C-alpha cells in the first residue's frame, strides 16, 4: 500500500488570534479576557505576541514557501465587534488575511472563537449569561456575511471541553463544576444556533466543532479501571461530540453530571435547537491520550492535557509506557491512531485535525538555524499513525499541526515554542521579532510536496 495521502489532503498549520496577532488594542480592537487575565509569573503577556497583525504579508509568504494547502486561524471576536458594534478596521484585517491566503492558494480555515471572549461580554456574565448565545450568533452572522463565500471550513468553538474542564489553566473560567457546565450548556446551544444559521444561509462550506479529543485508557485490566475510562471519556470527549453531531447529551456524561450536582438547566427550546444545529464534519485537536484508574484521592495538575479525579468515577494517573515532553505532556503517536478511529467509529463524519504538535524550548543558533529534530520526530510519528488510521478506514480532510509560527502558549509563554517558523523574541525582550525557518520547516515542506512522509 503506497504511503501516499489521499489526493487533495489538506496539509495545513494552525494558530489562534490572541496567541499570534498582538495589536491588542489597535484599530478599534477591544480587550478580551486574555488581555485582562493575570499572566503567569515569568511568562509574557499577549499585547505584542509575535506581531502577526503588522507582519501578515510576510507571514503568509512564508506559509506559501512552506507549501501549505490550508491555514487554520481564529478571528478575534473583540477585534471584529466592539461594544456590540461592527469594527470595520477589524473586519478589514481579516479580509486582507483571507485575500492573501487565497491569492497564495492556501485554503483559509476559520475558528470563530478561540479562548478570547470579549471582556465587555465577560463583564456581563459571559457564557453564564444566556444573552451571550444571541450575541455570539450576531457576531458569527457578520462573519458569514463578510467571508461566507471565501471560507469553506468553519469551526465554532475551539476546545470548549478544555474551557469547561481546565478553564483555570487557560484563563477562561474559574468556577464550580455546576457553574461551568451551565455556561458550557449555553455554549453548546450557541454552537447549535450558529450552525443552524450557517446552514440556513446556504453558504458553500462546512461547519463543525473543534474540541481537544484524547482517547482514555484504563490504567489496568481491572474492570473498575475500564469503567473509569468509560466515564472520563464520556465527560471529556463524548459530551461535546454527541451534542455537536447528534444534538443530545451523552447518557454517561449526563449521569456523571447529575451525580456530582452539575447537570445544567435545559429548556425545551434548547433541546430543539441542539437537534437542528448539528455539524458537517469534526475538527479535533490531539496532543495525547489520557489514562485513568478508579477514583482515589490524588493531587491534580490541571491543564488541557493532564487530568483530574472525580470521586466515584475516575482518577487520572501517569502512563509509564509513554515518554513525556519537557513540559510534562505525554507523547502517544499510536494513541493518535486510536483516537482517530474512536471518533470516526462513533460519528462517521470526516475528520480535520486542527492541532497536534510539541512545545519545546527551541534554540536559535548563531547561524540563525533551529535544529528541532525532536519536532520532526514527533510530527513524523504522528503522521505515520494518521496514515495508518486512513488505512484503517478513517475518512480524513487534513492535518494542521500546532503551530504554523511560534506564538504565545496559553499559560507557558513564548519559550514553549511550537512553530515551523522561529520568532526572535524572549519572554521579556521583544528583540526584532524576525522570522527564521526551523529544520522542521524544510522537512514539512517536503512532506507536503510529496504528499507523504
Ligand atoms: C490547545 C489550544 C491552543 C494551544 C495548544 C498548546 O489547548 O487550543 O490554543 O495553546 O493547546 O497548548 P499550550 O499553549 O498550553 O502549550
Characterization of this structure:
By secondary structure, the protein is of the alpha/beta class. It has one domain (10-450): Glycosidases (TIM Barrel, Alpha-Beta Barrel). The chain has 15 helices and 18 strands. The strands form 6 sheets. It has a 4-stranded parallel sheet with strand order 1-16-15-9, covered by helices on one side. It is globular. The model has no long low-confidence stretch (mean pLDDT 96).
Element layout with pairings:
Layout: E1 10-11, H1 17-20, H2 33-36, H3 56-66, E2 70-74, H4 77-80, E3 81-82, E4 85-86, H5 88-103, E5 107-113, H6 119-123, H7 131-147, E6 153-158, H8 160-170, H9 177-200, E7 206-210, E8 216-218, H10 223-246, H11 251-259, H12 268-276, E9 282-285, E10 290-293, E11 309-310, E12 314-316, E13 323-324, E14 330-331, H13 333-347, E15 351-355, H14 373-392, E16 396-399, E17 421-423, E18 435-437, H15 439-450
Parallel strand pairs: 1-16, 2-5, 5-6, 6-7, 8-10, 9-15, 15-16
Antiparallel strand pairs: 3-4, 10-12, 11-12, 13-14, 17-18
Bound molecules: 6-O-phosphono-beta-D-galactopyranose.
Describe what is shown at a glance.
By secondary structure, the chain is α/β, with parallel strands linked by helices.
Rg over alpha carbons? 21 Å
Annotation field: number of helices: 15
Query: pLDDT under 50 segments (min length 5)?
Result: none
Q: Give the helix/strand class.
A: alpha/beta
Strand-residue proportion: 5-15%
Can you list the strand order of the major beta sheet?
Answer: 1-16-15-9
CATH fold-level topology: TIM Barrel
Amino acid at each position: 500500500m503506497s504511503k501516499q495521502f489521499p489526493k487533495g489532503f489538506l496539509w495545513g498549520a494552525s494558530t489562534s488570534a490572541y496567541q499570534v496577532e498582538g495589536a491588542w488594542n489597535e484599530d478599534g480592537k477591544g480587550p478580551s479576557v486574555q488581555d485582562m487575565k493575570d499572566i503567569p509569573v515569568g511568562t509574557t503577556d499577549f499585547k505584542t505576541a509575535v506581531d502577526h497583525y503588522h507582519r501578515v504579508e510576510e507571514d503568509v509568504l512564508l506559509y506559501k514557501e512552506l507549501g501549505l494547502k490550508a491555514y487554520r486561524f481564529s478571528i478575534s471576536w473583540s477585534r471584529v465587534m466592539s461594544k456590540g458594534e461592527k469594527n470595520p478596521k477589524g473586519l478589514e484585517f481579516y479580509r486582507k488575511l483571507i485575500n492573501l491566503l487565497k491569492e497564495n492558494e492556501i485554503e483559509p480555515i476559520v475558528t470563530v472563537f478561540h479562548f478570547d471572549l470579549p471582556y465587555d461580554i465577560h463583564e456581563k456574565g459571559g457564557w453564564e449569561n444566556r444573552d451571550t448565545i444571541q450575541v455570539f450568533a450576531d457576531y458569527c452572522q457578520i462573519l458569514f456575511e463578510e467571508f461566507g463565500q471565501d471560507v469553506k471550513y468553519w469551526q465554532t468553538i475551539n476546545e470548549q471541553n478544555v474551557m469547561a474542564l481546565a478553564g483555570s489553566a487557560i484563563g477562561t473560567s474559574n468556577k464550580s463544576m455546576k457553574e461551568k457546565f451551565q455556561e458550557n450548556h449555553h455554549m453548546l446551544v450557541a454552537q447549535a444556533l450558529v450552525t443552524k444559521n450557517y446552514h440556513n444561509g446556504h453558504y458553500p462550506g462546512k461547519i463543525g466543532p473543534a474540541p481537544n479529543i484524547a482517547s482514555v485508557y484504563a490504567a489496568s485490566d481491572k474492570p473498575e479501571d475500564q469503567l473509569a475510562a468509560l466515564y472520563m471519556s464520556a465527560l471529556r470527549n463524548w459530551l461535546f461530540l454527541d451534542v455537536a453531531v447528534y444534538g443530545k447529551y451523552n447518557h454517561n456524561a449526563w449521569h456523571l453530571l447529575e451525580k456530582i450536582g452539575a447537570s445544567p438547566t435545559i429548556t425545551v427550546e434548547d433541546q430543539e435547537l441542539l437537534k437542528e444545529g448539528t455539524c458537517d464534519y469534526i475538527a479535533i485537536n490531539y496532543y495525547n491520550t489520557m489514562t485513568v484508574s478508579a477514583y482515589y484521592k490524588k493531587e491534580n495538575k490541571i491543564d488541557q492535557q493532564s487530568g483530574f479525579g472525580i470521586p466515584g468515577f475516575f482518577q487520572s494517573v501517569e502512563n509509564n509506557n509513554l515518554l513525556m515532553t519537557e513540559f510534562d505532556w505525554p507523547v502517544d503517536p499510536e494513541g493518535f491512531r486510536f483516537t482517530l478511529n474512536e471518533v470516526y467509529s462513533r460519528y462517521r463524519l470526516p475528520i480535520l485535525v486542527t492541532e497536534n504538535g510539541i512545545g519545546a524550548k527551541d534554540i536559535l543558533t548563531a547561524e540563525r538555524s533551529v535544529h528541532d529534530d525532536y519536532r520532526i520526530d514527533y510530527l513524523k510519528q504522528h503522521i505515520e499513525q494518521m496514515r495508518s488510521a486512513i488505512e484503517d478506514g478513517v475518512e480524513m480532510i487534513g492535518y494542521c499541526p500546532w503551530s504554523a509560527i511560534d506564538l504565545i502558549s496559553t499559560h507557558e509563554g513564548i519559550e514553549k515554542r511550537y512553530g515551523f517558523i522561529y520568532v526572535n523574541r524572549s519572554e521579556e525582550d521583544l528583540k526584532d521579532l524576525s522570522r527564521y525557518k526551523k529544520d522542521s520547516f524544510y522537512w514539512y515542506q517536503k512532506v507536503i510536496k510529496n504528499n507523504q512522509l
